[in-house]
Amino acid sequence: MPILGADMTAGTLVAWRKQPGDAVKRGDIIAEVETDKGLIDVEVFVSGVLEKILVAPGATVPTGAVLAVIREEGEAPGVAPPAAVPAAPPARLRISPTAKRLAEELGVDPATVRGTGPDGAITREDVERAAARPAVAPPAAPLAEADRMARMRQTIGAAMARSKREIPHYYLATTIDMHRAMAWLAEANLRRPVTERLLYGVLLLKAVALALREVPELNAVWRGGQVVRSEAVHLGVALSLRGGGLVAPALHDADRQSLGDLMRSFRDLVQRARTGGLRSSELSDPTITVTSLGDQGVDSVFGIVYPPQVAIVGFGRVAERPWSVDGTIVSRPVVTATLAADHRVSDGHRGSRFLAAVDRLLHEPARL
Amino acid sequence: MIANFAAMDVRPGSMGCPFSLLALDQIVNNAATLRHMSGGQLSVPLVVRMATGGGRQLAAQHSHSLEGWFAHIPGIKVLAPATPADARGLLLAALEDPDPVFVFEHATLYPTEGEVDESAGPAEIGRAAVRREGSAVTLITYGGSLPKALQAADRLAVEGLEAEVIDLRSLRPLDTRAILASVARTHRAVIVDEGWRMCSFAAEVSAQIMEQGFYDLDGPVARVCSAEVPMPYAKHMEDAALPQVATIVATVQERLGRRG
Amino acid sequence: MTRDEVRATVLRVLGDIAPEADLASLKPDVALREQLDLDSMDVLNFVVGLHAALGVEIPEADYPKFATLDGGVEYLTGRHAADARR
Q1: Using CB atoms, which residue from B218, B254, B256 is nearest to A99?
Q2: CATH 3.40.190.10 for domain B2-109
Q3: Residue A189: closest CA among chain C residues belongs to which residue?
Q4: How many CB atoms lie within 10 A of CB A146?
Q5: Secondary structure (3-state) at A245
């Protein structure tokens, strides 16, 4: 069961898309799981043959639990180590005697408890923590919309509280003249069929992705107490869901996609975020988040860094404002770009270099 | 010989623990058994004080901690004072006891100074003492390892881990009830014993917790013992072979999943 | 295509974009974006949906003309008729 968000502890397997004996290759969707982010498509990380399914549809299992065994190409049948999930946990649940007894007393299913003891053993404290949170929905029954909303709100709350508790944020803002970008976009969209039209948000995303090449320390995640910079730019895009709630799935390799490709990826991502079918990798591997409250909204948004990431970029609406050009006040479409970042990883000087790069890139839209 | 003296109520003084091996026949076959074999007609009111333990660069033949061996034998009592008050109180209790009592005094504790109430009577044999209260883990120890365990507890407290420290004082009889009561509060036990780990007294304590306190445990019992080598002479190697404050701290952190 | 048919098509496309909305209570003369909380992606999908349903290509410059339901139906009826004559 992949971890599809900083505070996810368990997921419910809804359906298998492959059956034992089927050949699978890296990137294939192998199963669907239900989480508080909705129905997620789980991808496989290795190519081979699905040898054995270990978790039946309807079962709720903790993150890290082995869902299935895939025999990798060239491997002898039957001896395959569990390969579907990295760092396979032991088959028997590691739970201390007193934690087990406490779980029985409190009516907590140990299989849904995440262990924090040595080697991931479940301790008394873990059981107490699990008992304090609302019970996981019964297996198989899809979450009622209201329940999912409540759980999503809780998940967002937990992640944001953790961020505010652990991450020393610093905040920067700059206002960017968008007249060239908007003019270029209007021009470009005249030539594009309606299905290929670009939103200005895609220019912002591409500018962020390219600016990260210049300030790569912002494109990183904490892993095991260390900051690991990412070569690839996987932009987490904060998307509000109709009816409430928020997800921030990744636009993979945003810096290497053309604007047209990026727009297609973006539309596809928004569509799937709202109707279900996000992929496990999209939820687990964003390297930075971009949030925009859209063109109906406010002038600026200061984000909260989403752990384990180290930075979040915010955009307000593009609005006409008085702007000084060569000593004359003119009306220009401007947008306020903000950066909230982890001071353990970068400082305001580098952060301002990043926002300056975004500004510069948006002045040359044709090169995005 | 010793047993014969004792049977005549002549109480000899102290010896180094390693030399006691020369008298094992008298201790095990005579002193420990005479009350039993005489049907209660003879008692051996023997008190033997022994300097035990390492840490003084006396190398492989003069650094033993063999109190665990003696505690194996029914018929004798084994005491291990760790404070000046206990050195007096437990010795008084030993002298009043009608049966053989072996008092293991860790040699590094001899310079320890402390207030002793001269009017205090004999201490109670078979009663452990809680030297420090805590809720995160129980450190169970005795004799020369008590000061190390208390220092380790101080260091752990800096990290917010309050360790309870139990001084066993008497290895045989053993105050199992005190051990279990503490583990029931803290749910974790680390035993600090200068004996070699294999077949150590710590192994006995661990087994008792497992047998009687299993459902209170929130993790496996851990032992901090001496390395499985004859005690080295070189200072740095001797230090490495003996339980140290740092190893106790690290073991507790590891057991609480606080490392890394 | 009659005005009513166009209106029905517009409502169906809106229903795909905002499935939770109660379209029956939509005020015909108040901005759709405010009533339905549409973002720019929703507006784009609306335009793409209308294109698929009616075969009408709406340039960006004309977006303000269908800010309200009434305005949109008016605009699209006219456009549809014009395209049909061509």
Answers
A1: B218
A2: no
A3: C60
A4: 9
A5: coil
Which residue on chain C is closest to A194 by alpha carbon? C48
Residue B172 and residue B77 in contact, taking contact as beta carbons nearer than 8 Å: yes
Mutate to test the interface with B, among A94, A95, A96 (most CBs of B within 10 A): A96
- Chain A residue numbers touching B216 (CB-CB < 8 A): 97-98
What pLDDT shows up at residue A39?
Answer: 79
User: CA of A318: which chain C residue's CA is closest?
Assistant: C40
Nearest CA in chain A to B220: A96
CATH topology of domain C3-85: 1.10.1200
In angstroms, what separates the C-alpha of C22 from chain A's closest C-alpha? 13
CA distance B230 to chain A (A): 32
Q: What distance in Å separates residue A229's CA from the closest CA in chain C?
A: 31
Instruction: Identify the pLDDT of residue A91.
Output: 57
Dist. CA A262–CA B212, nearest whole Å: 64
Domain B129-255 maps to which CATH number in 3.40.50.2300, 3.40.50.1100, 3.40.640.10, 3.40.50.920?
Answer: 3.40.50.920
> How distant, in Å, are the alpha carbons of A177, A181, C41, C47 from that of A200?
13, 8, 10, 16
Count of A–B CB contacts within 8 Å? 34
Cβ–Cβ under 8 Å, residues A14 and A33? yes
Q: Residue A308: what residue type?
A: P
Positions in chain B whose pLDDT score sits under 70:
1-17, 258-260
What does the pLDDT read at residue B173? 97
C11 has a chain A CB within 8 A of its CB: no
Q: Which of C18, C44, C61 sits opposite A199 (nearest CB)?
A: C44
How far is residue C13's CA from residue C54's CA, in Å, rounded to a whole number?
A: 11
Intrachain domains B2-109 and B129-255 with the same fold? yes
pLDDT exceeds 50 at position A80: no
Token pair recorded at residue A276 = 């279900």
* Contact status of A101 with chain B (Cβ, < 8 Å): yes
Q: Distance of CA B206 to CAs A121, A278, A360, B210, B250, Å? A: 20, 51, 68, 6, 19
Domain A167-367 in CATH: superfamily? Chloramphenicol acetyltransferase-like domain (3.30.559.10)
* Residue pLDDT, tens place only, A299-341: 999 999 998 999 999 999 999 999 999 999 999 999 999 999 9
C24 touches chain A (CB under 8 A): no
Tell me A322's DSSP state: E
The set of residues, in sequence order, having a beta carbon less than 8 Å from that of B119 and lying 6+ positions away, is none
Count Cα atoms within 13 angstroms, Cβ side, for A141.
8
Nearest to A37 by CA among A57, A56, A18, A10: A10
CA distance C58 to chain A (A): 7
Considering chain B, what percentage of its residues have pLDDT values greater than 90?
84
Token pair recorded at residue C31? 């901005």
| Rounded-to-integer distance, Cα A23 and Cα B9, Å | 87
CA-based nearest distance C43→chain A, Å: 10
Contact A96 B216 (CB under 8 A): no
ipTM score here? 0.85
Q: Would you say how long chain A is, in residues? A: 368
Flag whether residue C59 sits within 8 Å of chain A, measured between CB atoms.
yes
